[in-house]
């Protein structure tokens, strides 16, 4: 077996993903019923066992809605969510079983923790709901706290959220997920509210959980630097759809989509030269542009490079399509990128 296959986070390409979105769409109808916002507009995405996938993009691009759909918190209008190859059912008993094995960690641990509950109660609550038993409860709570980096765990049992630092509160929130021994964690901006010194500690914790316990994770973030430091694969989302996906090295070291290039250009460590400032705001999801949905803001189209490549009209009129969910190869939804790669070399 190759060293690459033995590396932490490596997955068998033939194995069924632990969690997957298949042609997923989530739409919200306005109060008047006259407009429909396509928050998630046809997404294929897979998370393999022991793999960390970063879902990146601007605020409002549909990342959090997609994450909640994967957890069964939002019901899709089309497509399906699959856990271990089996379609997610929406009856209470079916959802309860999946939510025990796929846990959510929220951005703001302060809001996620009940200020009247001790740390012990906060961590034990999920297990009580899902198991209906308190047998060996203290042992499981202590183990979850220890795995989340709060040691000795007994020292934290009777403390309240206001007595903890921001990093400790986030660790308690993670322990509340770990106590159920899940297979996947969906972490929505898990370090956005933390100081820089604490962010690294939480990211190292997620990496240890992957390496030591085989835990898979979907990390939702707007921060490409975070994705570079933690993820095995990255999926870049724009206006409800994944527009580029591949390994972190493929997507962040050699981006192909103009949107990914623009996001990376503002990172000092990326060495991308002058930052690319995208024109305007992302379009209204109730009025998604025709053609490539990024074309009204695309610097490649605006500069004339798409015209020179002979694809400008296609950018304005032809949808580049939906990317497949497999992580086997890098993919990009961009006419210009495909035209460049089709050019003869030498």
Report what the structure shows.
By secondary structure, this protein is an alpha/beta fold. The chain folds into two domains: 16-238, 3-Layer(aba) Sandwich (Rossmann fold); 256-342, no CATH class. It has 15 helices and eleven strands. It has helices at residues 3-6, 63-70, 92-101, 109-112, 119-131, 137-147, 166-178, 196-213, 224-230, 248-253, 258-265, 299-303, 305-308, 312-317, 335-342, and strands spanning 19-29, 36-47, 52-56, 78-83, 86-87, 102-105, 184-188, 216-221, 233-238, 241-247, 331-332. The strands form two sheets. A seven-stranded mixed β-sheet has the order 6-7-8-3-9-10-11, sandwiched between helices. The chain has a four-stranded antiparallel β-sheet with strand order 2-1-4-5. A hairpin with a 2-residue loop joins strand 4 (78-83) and strand 5 (86-87). Helix 6 packs across helix 7. The longest helix is centred in the middle third of the chain and has 18 residues, at 196-213. The protein is globular and about 65 Å long. The two termini are 36 Å apart. The model is unreliable at 1-14 (pLDDT under 50).
Task: Report a brief summary of the structure.
With 346 residues, the protein is of the alpha/beta class. The protein has 15 helices and 11 strands.
**Unreliable spans:** 1-14
Biggest sheet record: 7 strands, mixed
CATH third-tier fold name of the largest domain: Rossmann fold
From the alpha-carbon coordinates, what is the Rg to the nearest angstrom? 21 Å
Strand content: 15-25%
Within CATH, the superfamily of the largest domain carries the name P-loop containing nucleotide triphosphate hydrolases
Keywords: ATP-binding, Nucleotide-binding, Transport
Domain ABC transporter: 21-264
Pfam families: ABC_tran, oligo_HPY
Family: Belongs to the ABC transporter superfamily.
């Amino acid at each position: 077996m190759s060293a690459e296959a033995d590396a932490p986070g490596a997955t068998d390409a033939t194995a069924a993903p632990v969690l997957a979105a298949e042609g997923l769409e989530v739409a919200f109808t306005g109060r008047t019923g006259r407009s429909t916002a396509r928050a998630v507009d046809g997404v294929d995405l897979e998370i393999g066992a022991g793999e960390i996938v970063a879902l990146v993009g601007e605020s409002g691009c549909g990342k959090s809605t997609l994450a909640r759909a994967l957890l069964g918190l939002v019901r899709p209008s089309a497509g399906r969510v699959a856990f271990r190859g089996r379609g997610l059912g929406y009856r209470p008993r079916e959802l309860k079983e999946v939510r025990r094995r796929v846990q959510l960690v929220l951005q703001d641990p302060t809001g996620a923790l009940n200020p009247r509950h001790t740390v012990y109660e906060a961590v034990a609550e999920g297990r009580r709901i899902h198991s209906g038993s308190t047998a060996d409860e203290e042992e499981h709570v202590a183990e979850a706290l220890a795995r989340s980096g709060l040691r000795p765990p007994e020292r934290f049992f009777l403390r309240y959220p206001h007595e903890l630092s921001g990093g400790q509160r986030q660790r308690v929130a993670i322990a509340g997920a770990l106590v159920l021994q899940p297979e996947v964690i969906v972490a929505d901006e898990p370090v956005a509210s933390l100081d820089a010194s604490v962010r690294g500690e939480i990211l190292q914790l997620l990496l240890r959980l992957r390496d030591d316990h085989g835990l898979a994770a979907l990390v939702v973030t707007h921060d490409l630097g975070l994705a570079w430091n933690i993820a095995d694969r990255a999926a870049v989302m724009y206006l409800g759809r994944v527009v580029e996906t591949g390994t972190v090295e493929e997507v962040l070291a050699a981006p192909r989509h103009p949107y990914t290039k623009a996001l990376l250009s503002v990172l000092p460590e990326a060495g991308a030269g002058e930052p690319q400032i995208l024109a305007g705001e992302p379009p209204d999801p109730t009025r998604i542009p025709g053609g490539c949905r990024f074309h009204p803001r695309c610097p490649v189209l605006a500069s004339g490079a798409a015209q020179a490549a002979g694809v400008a009209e296609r950018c304005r009129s032809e949808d580049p399509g939906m990317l497949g969910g497999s992580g086997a190869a890098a993919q990009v939804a961009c006419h210009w990128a495909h035209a460049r790669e089709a050019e003869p070399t030498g």
